[in-house]
Amino acid sequence: MANFPMIGNYSATKLNSTQFTITFQYPENCYFEISTVNNSYVVKIYLNPGESTPSTTYKNHNFNANIINNVMSTKFEQYLTDSTIKKPNITSNE
Known about the structure:
Blueprint: E1 10-14, E2 19-27, E3 30-37, E4 40-47, E5 58-66, E6 72-79, E7 84-85, E8 89-92
Parallel strand pairs: 4-6
Antiparallel strand pairs: 1-2, 2-5, 3-4, 6-7, 6-8
């Protein structure tokens, strides 16, 4: 698994024919928002106000999501002080 500055471990697990769970780690000095865009869940991770570097201590989060059009799809966007990383992406149509 690749290293990302604002995402620790991450995974997707199919629960049944209509739902899946996304699990991910994010730095303790960050916050995130989850939305749906173009049939995909998008997790946007931001530094807390006043922070300039992501912490190396992570929090865990998981959420259940609906499978849309028979596809499990989640995209991560990491918003750093001077750049944006739009990775990783998790997609499966199993």
